[in-house]
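Researcher: We're reviewing a set of sequences before deciding which ones to prioritize for further study. For each one, I'd like a predicted 3D structure that I can look through quickly. This is Response regulatory domain-containing protein. If possible, include the structure in token form so it fits the rest of the review sheet.
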Amino acid sequence: MAQILVVDDDPAIRQLLADVLEMDGHEVRVAVDGLTAVSALDEILPDCVVLDVMMPGLDGYGVLRDIRGREGDRVPVIMLTAAADPESAARAWADGADYYLAKPFGADEVLYLIRSSLRDRQQVVEG
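Model: Here's the predicted structure for Response regulatory domain-containing protein, in token form for your review sheet.
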């Protein structure tokens, strides 16, 4: 299936997402914060990124800007946040997020968004 990069400073959320995605057949790489995510992006080209907004050091917006500044295919980014306010959502959309999901979320919601992102990306590649 797809290679997914999960970036979240909360170990329970990282583990939940990794377990759900692996059970769905995906290869999962995790990063504990924004700086680790940027380093991982130098090593791998994920098919999708699930990215927390609020993290110490480099936040999700900084990671998103880094992702969008890279050459190559546009990697889908699903942003997760505990602070689901209109300003945060507007900033995520302006910075290039594909989806914005408030915590707490259901595993089915995340799987649906990832599958949609991967399907949309495949159509662009084939189109």
